[in-house]
TrEMBL record:
UniProt-listed SUPFAM superfamilies: GroES-like (SSF50129), NAD(P)-binding Rossmann-fold domains (SSF51735)
Upper classification of the organism: Bacteria, Pseudomonadati, Pseudomonadota, Alphaproteobacteria, Sphingomonadales
Name under which the protein is recorded: L-iditol 2-dehydrogenase
Entry's Gene Ontology molecular function annotations: oxidoreductase activity, acting on the CH-OH group of donors, NAD or NADP as acceptor; zinc ion binding
Pfam family, one: ADH_N
Amino acid sequence: MMKAAVLASPGTIELRNDVPIPQPGEGEVRIRLEGCGVCASNLEPWAGLECMDYPREPGDLGHEGWGRVEAVGPGVSGLVTGDRVAALSYRSFAESDIVRADMAAKLPPELDGQPFPGEPLGCAFNIFHRSDIRPEQTVAIVGIGFLGAVLCHLASRAGARVIAISRRQESLDLARHYGAAETIFMHDHYAIIDQVKQLTGEAMCERVIECVGKQWPLDLAGELTGFGGRLVIAGYHQDGPRQVSMQMWNWKGIDVANAHERDPAVQMRGLREAIAAVADGSFDPAPLYTHSYPLERLGDALDATRDKPEGFVKALVTL
């Protein structure tokens, strides 16, 4: 038996100690988890979705896990017991989880002892690819949390001029740390547009990445995109339909990229690129891991992800 968190009902986590340890099947491995990141996409199920059945499966919603392979199923090559990995699995708010072997990536010795929520790091690297950012472009990033901060680093490292837009001074300071050249408080729609016009000589931005997942930031991102530019939707919009100004998008002739990848091969490419960047020291995610909770306090971790107390960027659940 193992310990696992169960989302019993909206706003209620039950910790169970009697969950059968899962057994890996053909092409699968079981990972003894060291930890799992908490994702903003967990918040709608936490608050309650009409389309979702409760209670959820043990460990459900946890998809940012890392740990060590503890059992290997038939037909697996390339992974052995004891390998430390980051994985793309889906029930990692538990002591162990099952994953397809081809959806787990080895962590090199340089990362020993470091937390590694691989899924969101890989997601950021893949969003960067979809953004097609080039040297000397102006890139606005709307919303600076974990994802926005990583993208500040990647865009500035690519030679772009990054304008970071967010609601909190500490978020803007974080954006500066990761390479943003300019920062703007996300407070007034038209004032932000005017500031970006001033910074760009009225041209606006060749690339805009929306990282919030709400209506107003999406509206703002469209306004900040220049003629022939690209609007990249990285925010996870799961709380209802959106309206967009199709007239403006048509008039500007902009490209719109929904940048959440679903191709497993592409997901793994981003994960491996993130592993390599952290291992060789070209990217340091440590400042982003601001809050840590044991599995018994998963509810507190979800509340912190929602409420964003002072200094909060990302919560990790440790096991």
